Q: What sequence folds into this?
């Protein structure tokens, strides 16, 4: 494999068996990173690893829900055991479960806050001892401390709100607060912490499957996904670039914050929305 921008880096990407997460994992691997792929389901995680390996990259799967107790520690430990450390963390996993506020249950609120905000917090907490130890070791040896990267995924629902998404909008606004706090906390370790807020990116969560009922199974819950095709057209008409984004374009915006050129950018929110915000 030729030299890439992320050569020798170890990257952890949640929700990377499909969609945007998979595009991020594949992009990172193509640029020389060793990737820990995570998905709720084991099969997509294995498929993503196989695709990366067949393209000449290096990856390993760590399946499971990011909301499970102990997952964060297992995820970070996989990176340490398989690849010797942690350089990049992308908190991407998530889904939506919409309702107007008067019909939203506590369970619905908690589930979305857990996956989009509590899980990233737990992963960063689990990574801290590993990063801190590596930094201390480098300083003791008189070596330069490499710049590590965290990218948290937000949404324009978190910056502008979205009707029917009180839970999701709150979680995605919360992740921006977490990003800014962690940028201040981890600057001393030479870690940059940024967020990318996606606009309309076309994935399985926006597309209604032909002849399908547009539901996905999240730990036994049947969650409706997909946007009405007419509504999708209307939404796209409101985007200055005139279309939804691709998963590769979404991955590109995350990649920009993980390369050496962005080593002095931290605590920032980048909107990847085709001009819509």
A:
């Amino acid at each position: 494999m030729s030299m890439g921008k992320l050569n020798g880096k170890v990257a952890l990407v949640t929700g990377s068996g499909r969609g945007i997460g998979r595009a991020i994992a594949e992009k990172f691997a193509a640029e020389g990173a060793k990737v820990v792929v995570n998905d709720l389901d084991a099969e997509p995680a294995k498929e993503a690893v196989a695709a990366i390996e067949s393209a000449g990259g290096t990856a390993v799967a760590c399946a499971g829900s990011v909301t499970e107790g102990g997952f964060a520690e297992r995820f970070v430990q996989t990176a340490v055991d398989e690849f010797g450390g942690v350089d990049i963390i992308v908190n991407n996993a998530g889904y939506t479960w919409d309702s107007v506020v008067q019909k939203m249950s506590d369970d619905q609120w908690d589930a979305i806050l857990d996956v989009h905000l509590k899980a990233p917090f737990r992963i960063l907490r689990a990574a801290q001892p590993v990063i801190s130890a590596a930094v201390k070791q480098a300083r003791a040896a008189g070596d330069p401390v490499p710049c590590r990267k965290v990218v948290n995924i937000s949404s324009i629902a978190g910056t502008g709100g979205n009707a029917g998404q009180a839970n999701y909008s709150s979680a995605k606004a919360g992740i921006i607060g977490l990003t800014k706090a962690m940028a201040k906390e981890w600057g001393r370790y030479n870690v940059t912490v940024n967020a990318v807020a996606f606009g309309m990116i076309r994935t399985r969560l926006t597309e209604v499957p032909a002849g399908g009922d547009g539901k996905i199974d999240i730990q036994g819950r049947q969650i409706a996904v997909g946007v009405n095709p007419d509504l999708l057209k209307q939404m796209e008409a409101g985007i200055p670039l005139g279309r939804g984004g691709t998963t590769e374009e979404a991955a590109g915006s995350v990649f920009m914050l993980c390369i050496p050129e962005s080593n002095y950018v931290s605590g920032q929110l980048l909107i990847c929305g085709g001009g819509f915000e």
In short: Residues 10-201+249-272 form a domain with the Rossmann fold fold (CATH 3.40.50.720). Residues 106-140 form the longest helix (35 residues).
